[in-house]
Design a protein that fits this description.
The structure is a homodimer of 336-residue chains. Chain A is α+β, with helices and mostly antiparallel strands. Chain A has a single domain, classed as Beta-lactamase (3-Layer(aba) Sandwich). In chain A, 41% of the residues lie in helices and 19% in strands. Chain A contains 14 helices and twelve strands. In chain A, strands 1, 2, 3, 8, 9, 10, 11 and 12 form an eight-stranded antiparallel β-sheet that branches. At the A-B interface, strand 2, helix 6 and strand 5 of A face strand 2, helix 6 and strand 5 of B. Chains A, B: This is Asparaginase. Chains A, B: InterPro entries: Asparaginase_II.
Chain lengths: 336, 336
């Protein structure tokens, strides 16, 4: 099965490039709301499932013990831009458990937010683990280890208690198996598992509604999604798709990007979860796809919101002088 | 016709993303050497045809009048990284015609070479037109205007003498029509035209061999390709695919990237030209494609070189700690 073209990139009216993809939207009972392409294909969700990976932080009591509010929980679910506010909050999260940057095992990279990289260079700074887009998630892992009295060293390994807890949560929420046969290593060194898009969508329908989850897990899930929706800057950052989409409809849309063209999302009021993959791994295509899918699902409920979302699904292509010379455009298979 | 998957991206042995593409390789008589996918589809070559766009600079006598050697000609054909040596040379090219950065109409962006952006920020600098990856090409346009006694202002417009000369060269070399019906605006504000991949491949076979071109044009074409092959750093820069591929076999491979997943190349000894497009516009896929195609074409002649090229077609996927967690891999449709 060849997945369809879902997004086209036009230059002065001519199609220059195209992105294929697959989209699954299901409710918490697993009923299909929308299916495009092969939704059974296994996909590495990468960072798109950080909210599920953060469940042990809340369920264990570690988040409360550390005094975490919405911002800290949002950062635990984030792929942040390494902007100063992100870096400071990640450091504070670690400090609340008596840890610091040296305990992070996520690796180092310059801030994803380009202006923050320039500012860091201007101040003669160098990046550290706190600037890694995953530092909030890793801070959450570390705080959970400390709260449980588990030696945190080596917490990124598949057989460490930290990743066992994450894997148990991922399996219970998505209903998909997570084992050696579908496992790999993520960019931040923790395990990632390829599971069907439909299972990821089901997982986020359950996260949003609590249906199909034990009561304590359901409460933790709703608390995490609510935190992200309340503090979308701390889930991504300036100019980023997930932040802008959540800001477009406060409390109505949860959305999270994953590397290699993945987005997971949830619409609590509609009780559905969304998972999509741009098959070439490109975030440009994936961002237009998720905005268009959200517009399609919410269009009947709020035409004004749908219009704002569709505008985000149609970003302009600009010249280096800032002139509009093209357009990203969702294809008919996506807009319905 | 659905173009085939030509490159797969694996994470710990599982395919995570895939890039579709089309490849045309032809000789100077237009005979097919290799065809994969739809080679008749119109493609905006973008910066991949800068060597053809530089023909008027040489043919007009402007390059000699300005005293340009291999480095200057390579930079006129370049999408450079904005590294200090690129910026200094572009400034010198403009100065040789009595012009400066303010005359550039390509727009401004931070150096594509990330380390050079950081260095510029550390020195409290700001980017200007000279840092634009196209500044060498635009310097060439400006020097040509000055040499011909043409007012250079507005030289990026389709109806300016500068772009008329470029269009005439592009049409003559590729044999494809360039008009309003297939025209658009490139990122650096000059016109770009969507033409079949096969025509682009033919154009580079002619550039490399001189066949099918008037004698003066054939000499200019060979001089430009030779300059790029002699000074590959000035065609792209540190770590870049085109630079590394040309360095792998000095004088045997000409290769040039274009935005949105395009590569054009030529193999002078084999007398063939190459044009390919990664259909999603991704440079990751396109770079693996061009390395694999070059390895396939040169493999029978130099097994050692073919091995080095195939290694470049299989770059590792790294974690943020530098561990190898995956691999980019050309697909069977590409390796033959």
């Amino acid at each position: 099965m060849t997945d369809p073209v879902l997004v086209e990139v036009l230059r002065c009216g001519h199609v220059e490039s195209a992105h294929r993809g697959a989209v699954a939207v299901v409710d918490a009972d697993g009923r299909t709301v929308l299916e495009i392409g092969d939704v059974g294909q296994p996909v590495f969700p990468r960072s798109a499932v950080k909210a599920i990976q953060a469940l042990p932080l809340v369920e264990s009591g570690a988040a409360d013990a550390c005094g975490f509010g919405d911002r800290e929980l949002a950062l635990a679910c984030a792929s942040h831009g390494g902007e100063p506010a992100h870096v400071e909050l990640a450091a504070a999260m670690l400090a609340s458990a008596g840890l610091d940057e040296a305990d992070l095992e996520c690796g180092v990279h310059w801030p994803s937010h380009f202006e923050s990289s320039l500012a860091l260079a201007r101040s003669r700074g160098e990046p550290g683990g706190l600037h890694n887009n995953c530092s909030g998630k890793h801070a959450g892992f570390l705080c959970t280890c400390r709260h449980l009295g588990v030696d945190h060293r080596g917490y990124v390994a598949a057989d460490h208690r930290s990743q066992q807890l994450v894997r148990e949560a991922m399996q219970a929420v998505t209903g998909a198996g997570h084992g050696e046969e579908n496992g790999a290593t993520d960019g931040c060194s923790i395990p990632t598992y390829a599971v069907p898009l439909k299972s990821l969508a089901l997982g986020f329908a359950r996260m949003a509604t609590g249906q199909g989850l034990a009561p304590a897990r359901a409460r933790a899930a709703k608390r995490l999604l609510a935190a992200c929706m309340a503090e979308p800057f701390f889930v991504a950052g300036t100019g980023r798709a997930d932040t802008r989409l959540m800001q477009a409809a406060p409390g109505k849309i949860f959305v999270k990007v994953g590397a290699e063209g993945v987005f997971c999302a949830a619409l609590p009021e509609l009780g559905c979860g969304i998972a999509l993959k741009c098959l070439d791994g490109g975030e440009r295509g994936a961002a237009a796809m998720v905005a268009a899918v959200l517009a399609r699902l919410l269009g009947g409920h709020d035409a004004d919101l749908a219009g704002r979302l569709m505008a985000m699904a149609h970003p302009p292509v600009l010249s280096r002088k800032g002139a509009t010379v093209g357009l990203v455009r969702p294809a008919a298979a996506l807009t319905g």
